[in-house]
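User: I'm preparing a small set of examples for a lab meeting where we compare how different chains pack in three dimensions. I only have the primary sequence for this one, and I'd like the structure in token form so I can line it up with the others. Please keep the answer compact; I'll paste it straight into my notes.
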Amino acid sequence: MKRYSAWSVFLNGLTGQKNWDRAWRDPEPKTEYDVIIVGAGLHGLATAYYLARNHGITNVAVVEKGWLGSGNAGRNTTIVRSNYMLPGNRPFYEHSLKLWENLSHDLNYNVMFSQRAHVTLLHSPAARDAAARRYNTMRLTGSDGELWDLPTLKRKIPHLNYGPDARFPIIGASAQLRAGSARHDAVAWGYARAADQRGIDILQNCEVTGVLRDGGKVTGVETVRGVIRAKKVGFAVAGHTSRLWRMAGLGKLPIETHKLQAFVSEPLKPLLDQVVVFGVG
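Assistant: Understood. Below is the structure token output for the 281-residue chain.
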């Protein structure tokens, strides 16, 4: 499979775009793998890719009941940020943001990551104080962050309702300029292509119907395309985690699932350059 480049785009343009290779294979399942990952969303595909790239583990199958990226990966809000305050979150998300900054080059695929800034509007003095604490903590630990007063905010984002009769009057904002958004479909496709190039099998239309166990050990999965065994099985299925947890005989997972998804109902002319979030949202 060839690398993408400006030269390959030019050459394929001359031939009517007829000579592109497939982005990834559509293999038949093998009877056994070292690792099975259930769920071909962003977490599942990224896990498979980094297992291959960072650890040399390539005998891996990513099992997906539909097509890759057809779940939450294709319906999320596309926001990328690291504006967190708690000790466990700060380094985790900051490392993630640094990966995003080079992801298109790493995958040889344009994930359309745009660092257009993430701006959170502030509506009360208490919210401003909380933002100051949070963003100063971020700056002290290596992340970027700014607090904008009202004149600065009006200059940078003039199209908001700054009137005194607004439902939630705006008094300022906090901003992380390195944050932004990415095309979620492109991220899934990029990880899939890069994982496939390293020998990972992506098995679409391969729903898991059961989990195989030998005593206290998980040994594989039953799917609509047959039994597949593995030394390790991982779940990356977002809201379906509780269902697969029970399927594995592990009882009830003590979490609740709440959807946080978005879609565009009507195309509008672009108005905002940044990601803007109401502080009361």
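A couple of notes for your slides: The domain at 79-182 is CATH 3.30.9.10 (D-Amino Acid Oxidase; Chain A, domain 2). The longest strand covers residues 226-235.

User: Perfect, thanks.
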